[in-house]
Design brief:
Strand order of the largest sheet: 8-11-16-15-14-13
CATH superfamily of the largest domain: Glycosyl hydrolase domain, family 43
Helix content: 10-25%
Shape: globular
Distance between the termini: 29 Å
Number of helices: 10
CATH topology of the largest domain: Tachylectin-2, Chain A
Largest sheet: 6 strands, antiparallel
Structural class: alpha+beta
Length: about 500
């Protein structure tokens, strides 16, 4: 019999059945990143020129020996390792004397001198989110392959989005499939904006002055980087010359560049893929992705996810969309509901609108709507902190799960000693502002062997799924590792009914 959580001496309304499956952070999952010595700290003096000079001064026989050792030691740890080194050598190529030819070995050594390995999970692995996997081949009856997104935390507390696959069923079984190496970050490029979307983002931050209005009016309804530059060129000189004009131009360029597409190479295993911070506003992390398999009005499905971008000072709620979990579009969200952490999308339209859970006041569970999935309305509060295990704040634990009884929403509460617990509420299918039921006791709290970790006393999830009469919930333990539990879905819904 699996262990069942007991909260503060009270038997839970619905037993939590923990299973032996889990994931630990893997420090061998590394990316080869560009490293510019002296520039790793704000205000640092670049030492690139001096490093280039020393590399160029080495004798060729020594260069060949070092390059061979690099290829032997690191090629198995990185996809296209030689290409990465050549690319990084090109970044500092301006420091190389034009009259001095470089052999392939010296180019590789130069690139390696400006490359470092970053352990994506060197500090922690946490906050999983689960959706049905795009590939359901090769399974037994009663099995479902699950795509699990993971928050990896490395040096400097920088978060990235990694992936794993698992198989749920038959029955009360959950098995994580082996994670493949090496990890691959993919190739990023620009994408398009809608003009009114950009206007909403600027309005959120009070950045619409006369110049911004002028530029917005010059942009086509759907535009890209080149269109923005044309509009800036056409802007009136007096507007550009005003105080604050350059700041407005910088803001426009930064925001437009923050939207991007990233493509992971075809043929890479799902668990090799990683989404690494690309936009400036996510330079210190992509946190807590909440994935959902979204079904459009035409019946077509795609994968959507909200996540929190962090630049070291500010957060920005953002959206990922993907048809196949290999090619992703990343965009900023806007509107009153998109101003805090923890948005989670409903898996389909309700009454013709997009819906999302949010926590705009920092402590209550709310819902908001959107016509286009980018600009979100003012939130409607669903649930304020009341119970002793949620006195600090409430939030969601992932997108709502549709059931015949209503929208099942997993919640988290934070109580004394910043101890996290997971609960649930039930919302009306046709009007998600109506709360049909609420658990008075947690579904899940930390067991004695789950208290320790990168952040102690935390059990937290960014999304579970229903399969074969069970609610499956992968969850983070202490922001350090991944565990899995399941709940009888009928028992849970019965406990939530009025």
């Amino acid at each position: 019999m699996s262990r069942a959580t007991v909260a503060a001496g009270r038997a839970p309304a619905v037993p939590a059945h923990r299973v032996p499956a889990g994931l630990l952070p893997d420090p061998s999952r590394v990316l080869a990143r560009l490293f510019l010595p002296g520039e790793e700290l704000p205000g640092g003096r670049s030492r690139a020129g001096a490093v280039v000079g020393r590399v160029m001064g080495l004798p060729e026989h020594q260069v060949e020996r070092l390059a061979t050792a690099l290829l032997d030691g690191y090629s198995s740890r990185h996809r296209d390792y030689s290409s990465t080194l050549i690319q990084h050598a090109g970044v500092v190529g301006s420091h190389v004397p034009t009259a001095q030819p470089m052999s392939t070995a010296r180019t590789l050594l130069l690139g390696a001198s400006f490359t470092c390995e970053y352990a994506l999970e060197g500090a922690a692995l946490c906050n999983p989110s689960a959706v049905p996997h795009p590939d359901q081949s090769g399974l037994l009856p009663g099995q479902l392959r699950v795509a699990v997104s993971l928050r990896g935390i490395g040096e400097g507390h920088i978060s990235s989005i990694g992936f794993a696959s698992a198989v749920a069923g038959p029955g009360p079984q959950w098995t994580f499939e082996p994670r493949a190496h090496p990890v691959v970050a993919g190739t990023s490029g620009s994408t398009t904006w809608r003009r009114e979307h950009l206007r909403s983002v600027l309005a959120d931050h009070g950045d619409i002055d006369g110049l911004a209005h002028n530029i917005l009016d010059e942009l086509p309804e759907v535009f890209g980087d080149a269109d923005l530059e044309l509009a800036l060129t056409a802007a009136h000189h007096d507007l550009l010359a005003r105080a604050g004009g350059q700041a407005t131009v910088d803001t426009l360029r930064r925001l437009v560049a923050s939207a991007y597409q990233v493509s992971l190479p075809a043929g890479t295993a799902f668990s090799q893929r990683v989404l690494w911070p690309t936009a400036v506003e996510e330079s210190h992390g992509m946190e807590d992705a909440r994935f959902v398999q979204f079904t459009g009005p035409d019946g077509a499905t795609a994968y959507h996810a909200t996540y929190t971008a962090y630049d070291g000072k500010r957060i920005a709620p953002r959206l990922l969309t993907s048809p196949d979990l290999r090619v992703f579009q990343a965009h900023r969200l806007a509107g009153p509901a998109a101003r805090n952490k923890g948005m989670a999308l409903f898996p389909r339209l309700v009454a013709g609108k997009h819906w999302a859970l949010c926590r705009s006041d920092g402590e209550s569970n709310s819902v908001a709507t959107s016509d286009d999935g980018f600009l979100w309305s003012a939130p409607t509060v669903l649930q304020a902190p009341e119970a002793d295990w949620e006195v600090l704040q409430l939030g969601n634990c992932g997108p709502p799960i549709e059931t015949a009884a209503g929208w099942l929403v997993l919640t988290h509460g934070v109580g004394p000693m910043r101890r996290y617990a997971i609960g649930a509420i039930l919302l009306d299918l046709d009007d998600p502002t109506v709360v049909l039921g609420r658990l008075e006791q947690p579904l899940l709290q930390t067991e004695p062997d789950e208290r320790e970790g990168y952040v102690p006393n935390v059990v937290y999830s960014c999304g579970g799924l229903a399969h074969d009469g069970r609610l499956w919930l992968p969850y983070g333990v202490g922001d350090a590792r991944i565990a899995v539990a399941w709940f009888d879905l009928d028992e849970l819904l019965t406990a939530l009914r009025p």
